[in-house]
Design a protein that fits this description.
Distance between the termini: 11 Å
CATH architecture: 3-Layer(aba) Sandwich
Strand order of the largest sheet: 2-1-3-4-5
Structural class: alpha/beta
CATH topology: Rossmann fold
Amino acid sequence: MRILILNGPNLNLLGTREPSIYGSENLESLLLLLIEKFPSVTFSHLQSNHEGVLIDAIQDSEKYDAIVFNAGGYTHTSVAIADALAAVKPKVIEVHLSNILAREKERHTSLLAQHCLGTISGFGFDSYVLAVEQLTR
């Protein structure tokens, strides 16, 4: 199975950005964790702070079986990313490190969820692990 781990804006700051919310580990640690837990899966990773780069990655995703996507703040604002997700074949699971429903009101709505198999939030890196577990069943 080939899975794209796609991360949006500000996730490049993991480990230093608000560790009380997002934890003290970085993206490299996340990828190493996934590779260790799922040796039969081929992972690719992209993080971008730019909406168009994320859209290009989604539109270019035909080589993947699935996408695990943390769109960060774009989750709540990007109709363009939602449209891109609606147009592709790979299965998509939306993930968030924090529980977006327990945070500010503007984070309570996902424009992407309707184009995803499901949403997993609030479990830190385990949100990604749970998503991959579901995809590899």
